[in-house]
Amino acid sequence: MSAPQKKFVKGNEAVAMAAIEAGVQCYFGYPITPQSDIPEYLSRELPKAGGTFIQVESEIGAINMVLGASACGVRAMTSSSGPGISLKQEGISYMAGSELPGVIVDIMRAGPGLGGIDASQADYHQATKGGGHGGYRIIVLAPNSGQEMYDLTMLAFDLSDQYRMPAMLLADSVLGQMKESIVANPRPKAELPAKDWAVRGTGGGAQHVVKSLYLGDGEMEKFHWKMHARYQELAEKESRWEEYQTTDAELIVTAFGATSRIARTAVEMARAAGLKVGLLRPITLFPFPKKAYAELSARCKNWLTVELSTGQMVDDVRLSVARDAEVDFYGRPPGAGSLPTPEELFEQIKKHF
Amino acid sequence: MKQVFAKPVSLKDVQTHFCPGCHHGSIHRLVAEAMDQLGIAEQTIGCASVGCSVFLYGYFNIDVVESPHGRAPAVATGVKRARPDRIVFTYQGDGDLAAIGTSEIIHAANRGEKITVIFVNNTTYGMTGGQMAPTTMPGQKTSTSPYGRDVTNDGKPFKMAELLSNLDGVTYAARVAVNSPKNVLQAKKVIKNAFQYQVEGKGFSFVEVLSACPTNWGMNALAANERVGSEMIPYFPLGVFKNTENL
């Protein structure tokens, strides 16, 4: 093994570096703040690595190029933020319906509408509940550091290929723009199923068709139950979370992404003040790590969810904890100056003691 | 006995769902004949669109990706960039290509994507029941232009072959019809040329095919075929509007 390669980079750059390391062959994107570092980096580096970069006419065009490239069995990705992710929902729905992998990076910004470029977590529902039509889910990973922007981008490609579903890296403008040290070492390749469904030209063999149209009696219903089973398998095998100081906690704070970093500092302040507070951070938002919430809430009944919105993930927290657990919520809707301070969260924590 | 005529091997030996008198069947056949003659079917990936043309995979012996409405040129771009060694084409109707998919077709053409586009213009939305299309002719009655297309309200029909021929990325842009033996032979030659350019790696090729839709025009098969010659061709002139290679 070579020595660790430490790099001091923006979160967005970490995503782009990881995509190349993961072997992305095609990137299709459109500029939008706060994620434009990703297409900028890949326009420079992906051609050098033998891949294709296209700055597309629209987010709709970009996601459909991902669909086409992915149908050929190559690793393909796009990235955007709020308004652009809304435009991509059509293509994401078609990819889900066609059982196609592909990675979508969403560096969330404030909304609705044009909103603003400040950090937001208000696209949680759009990401985790199937943002387009028809009833589907995609894998959603929520990093909270530069290192995880790198690691989870690589994981997104692997899980997406493994389960034949689109995967989204859901971060925010803090994570996208913040510079941190990361270790970007080559990783061993995951063992993944062969893409024997991809279109390639029949070569005289069997016809391969990638489609989402199911008109035959019962076909569509069968597809939905198949995907339902796949989502359950995903929940069982791929739910990921991080716990901090939960063992003896009398209050558990739960938050994802950049908010979880602030929450952790607040938990450390509480511990220093002698308050028994822990932190549960979901890393997979779909599948939501329900088991972790169920198990911890069997013992600890006091919960505080913190989000940069008026409350979205809190719905999943309430559905996952034991019935007699109390789930409080503290939210700061997205916008300039709405990022809470550790002191602010510490004040919220103290109210529970 | 010497066999002088057969079904193209690129076409499956199945019945189509197309209405009697619809020209999709003839156009499918010409595309299949071009693939047969060039020997490319086994290396070809088709991009189906939304509309009556969605069942491409049911009729052609080739690999097919289904595209969202209007997005086939973007999907085909992804396919071609991922597999530049393959022949890639889209097959789209007028609502798909000239309304909801205008952005995708214009930008794919302008980039000079090395793909072939077969554009079937029948002046109406066939599958959804004969609504007004971007190519519906002035005064033409449809289910959403019951008083006839009013150009002061809806604008005039798109002439896509002419429009795209103005873009530098386009190698070949032509309009053909399949309403007479003479026109079928010309269409066959043009469609083959369009694929030939791609085989030679020469950029974006576009063939608009005027087509009858008897069911939604409220005509029988013969009258619909007649209309292609009497009304459509005078408005949508046949010809090669761009040919940078002079094949």
Structure description:
The complex is a heterodimer of chains A (353) and B (247). Chain A is α/β, with parallel strands linked by helices and 353 residues long. Chain A has two domains: 6-195 and 212-238, Rossmann fold; 241-350, Rossmann fold. Helices cover 40% and strands 22% of the residues of chain A. Chain A has helices at residues 11-21, 37-45, 59-71, 82-97, 124-128, 146-163, 173-177, 219-238, 257-272, 290-299, 313-320, 342-350; strands at 6-10, 26-29, 52-55, 76-80, 102-110, 116-119, 139-141, 166-172, 179-183, 209-210, 241-244, 251-254, 277-282, 284-286, 302-307, 326-331. In chain A, the strands form three sheets. In chain A, strands 2, 3, 4, 5, 6, 7, 8 and 14 form an eight-stranded mixed sheet that branches. A five-stranded mixed sheet of chain A has the order 11-13-12-15-16, with helices on both faces. In chain A, α4 (82-97) links the parallel β4 (76-80) and β5 (102-110). The model of chain A has no long low-confidence stretch (mean pLDDT 97). Chain B is an alpha/beta fold and 247 residues long. Chain B has one domain: Rossmann fold (3-Layer(aba) Sandwich). Helices cover 38% and strands 19% of the residues of chain B. Chain B has helices at residues 24-38, 56-59, 72-82, 94-100, 102-111, 151-154, 160-165, 181-199, 214-217, 221-235, and strands at 44-48, 63-66, 87-93, 116-121, 124-125, 131-132, 170-177, 204-210, 239-243. Chain B has a seven-stranded mixed sheet with strand order 2-1-3-4-8-7-9, with helices on both faces. In chain B, a hairpin with a 5-residue loop joins β5 and β6 (131-132). In chain B, α1 (24-38) packs across α8 (181-199). Chain B is globular. The N and C termini of chain B lie far apart (35 Å). The model of chain B has no long low-confidence stretch (mean pLDDT 97).
